[in-house]
Design brief:
Blueprint: H1 2-24, H2 26-43, E1 47-48, E2 51-54, E3 57-60, E4 66-67, H3 75-88, H4 90-108, H5 111-123, H6 129-144, H7 156-165, H8 170-187, H9 192-202, H10 210-237, H11 265-287, H12 292-309, H13 314-327, H14 329-347, H15 351-359, H16 367-381, H17 388-405, H18 410-423, H19 432-441, H20 445-472
Antiparallel strand pairs: 1-4, 2-3
Helix pairs in contact: 2-3, 2-14, 3-14, 4-12, 4-13, 4-14, 5-11, 6-8, 6-10, 7-8, 8-10, 8-18, 9-17, 9-18, 10-20, 11-12, 12-13, 14-19, 16-17, 16-18, 16-20, 17-18, 18-20
Length: 476
């Protein structure tokens, strides 16, 4: 009897764990949020702002909000949001597949692993942390200057594999690209999708006020690298310190023995093609406003050239690209599901209502408090509108006129928007980068929050301090 009782307790415990683990699965979590958003369409009245077309863009009249007839989401509409979300996110999903396939070519050639191995050998096994710093700073650059936020997604198999190969855990493999790209995006010295759009709407010179944002970018480079290295060092010294200790099997990821990887002429040549591919994409995004189509095309060209140099025949190049796309499939699907949430809110016409009521508390307070409240408001709204450019187009027409009333500079208002959009990316399962990495690694969202919450406290303190300085110097 005692043994039976003990077995029953163990089974009950495992059943409870299994029950709750279902709701931490990224795909099921996103569907749950879609269902909750559908419920909100019955509780929140529909409303709309009038808008006009200026320069080919929708510009909202901030004084035109009015209620309209409600159209709550039906039972069928709830499930329609899934294919509609996938359709809306199709360009991004296909970019993820194609770039993921291209990166698989460079990775399979041994060029990237060989470069990491060479750096590890150069620095010494005890200084592998320098390799993490270089990779993290690379993602900080991609987020801050060309604004390539979702471009981090296809790197998941590569960066996670490198982290494990160097003796770290899966969380380090997630943190390096996700924290790097998101914090670079938040600082946005020349981010065309947030800073650029918002300044254009405000009538400010493009990327004006660069100095303060660049200083913030430097601060975040130091903060992100320091925080990741501190965690990585503890995990390497004692694997039980890992947030996912005993939960994630590292053997499911493609780790390699870095000490045995060659880095000869062929590997160096392929690596140069890889670097040139990324540089071309960055240059095109910053100078020619290249989007997802052009980025994907350049990666395909780079992959073909890299594959030829690596000695792959046409069949192997094609198979490797397909394998790379398969490895990132779950992450790409999660992106489409996340888009389904905004589909529900937009189709039911309650998004404008949420924006309207959320903006009301900003009236009648001091400039500094206004800046803080704008930051919090934008952070919360990122859950519903995880697109930086979409958030700018939705909120800036309301925030900018309100800033004039509150005697708050337009640059500070844009800074509050940047911070709200960028820093909140780490906390919400609706954000493509976060949910894709969690889906790929099978790390629950709860574990991710446990891992990242202390870092978020730090960056929010930095954000409030930066906004305080911006208001004090009347940042223009």
């Amino acid at each position: 009897m005692p043994n039976n009782k003990k077995e029953h307790m163990i089974q009950t415990k495992e059943s409870k764990k299994s029950f709750w683990s279902v709701f931490t699965d990224p795909v099921i979590l996103l569907f749950t949020i879609i269902a909750f958003a559908s419920l909100l369409t019955y509780l929140i009245p529909a409303g709309a702002y009038d808008f006009s077309m200026v320069g080919g863009k929708k510009i909202i009249d901030p004084n035109s909000f009015h209620f309209i007839k409600s159209t709550p989401t039906s039972f069928l509409g709830l499930f329609n949001a899934i294919p509609l979300g996938l359709q809306a996110a199709a360009p991004l999903m296909f970019m993820i597949f194609l770039i993921g396939g291209a990166i698989k070519i460079f990775d399979s050639s041994g060029a990237i692993g060989g470069a990491v191995a060479a750096l590890t050998r150069k620095f010494g096994a005890g200084k592998s942390s320098w390799v993490l710093v270089l990779i993290t700073t690379f993602f900080l650059f991609l987020g801050g200057f060309p604004g390539m936020l979702e471009a981090a997604i296809p790197f998941a198999p590569l960066v996670v594999g490198i982290a494990i190969s160097m003796g770290y855990d899966v969380m380090v493999g997630i943190a390096v690209p996700v924290l790097g790209i998101a914090m670079g995006w938040a600082a946005g010295p020349t981010n065309p999708f947030t800073t650029g759009i918002a300044q254009q709407m405000a009538g400010l010179p493009m990327f004006s006020g660069f100095g303060l944002r660049f200083c913030l970018w430097i601060v975040l480079v130091l903060l992100v690298n320091g925080w990741i290295l501190n965690y990585a060092k503890k995990v390497k010294a004692d694997p039980t310190k890992s947030t996912v200790y005993g939960l994630i099997d590292n053997n499911q990821f493609d780790a390699v023995n870095l000490d045995e990887l060659p880095f000869g002429i062929r590997e160096k040549s392929v690596l140069m093609v890889f670097i040139l591919t990324i540089a071309t994409v960055v240059f095109g995004a910053m100078n020619f406003k290249w989007g997802m189509t052009e980025m994907s095309s350049i990666y395909i060209i780079g992959a073909i050239v890299g594959g030829i140099i690596a000695g792959f025949n046409a069949s192997k190049i094609a198979r490797t690209i397909m394998d790379g796309a398969k490895s990132i499939f779950i992450g790409a699907i999660a992106v489409g599901l996340a888009r389904g949430i905004s589909v529900v809110l937009q189709n039911a016409k309650i998004l404008d209502t949420i924006v309207y009521y959320a903006s009301l508390p900003l009236k009648g307070v001091s400039p500094l408090i206004s800046a803080f409240l704008m930051f919090i408001f934008q952070s919360l709204l990122t859950f519903l509108i995880p697109s930086g450019s979409g958030l700018a187009m939705t909120t800036m027409p309301i925030m900018l006129p309100l800033a004039d009333i509150l005697h708050l500079s337009k640059q500070v208002t844009i800074l509050a928007f940047q911070f709200g959009d960028g820093f909140a990316h780490l906390a919400f399962p609706t954000v493509a980068v976060v949910i894709s990495y969690l889906a790929y690694t099978k790390v629950s969202f709860g574990k991710w929050l446990k891992f990242v919450w202390s870092f978020m406290v730090l960056v929010y303190i930095v954000a409030f301090a930066t906004l305080s300085i911006a208001v004090a110097i009347n940042y223009h």
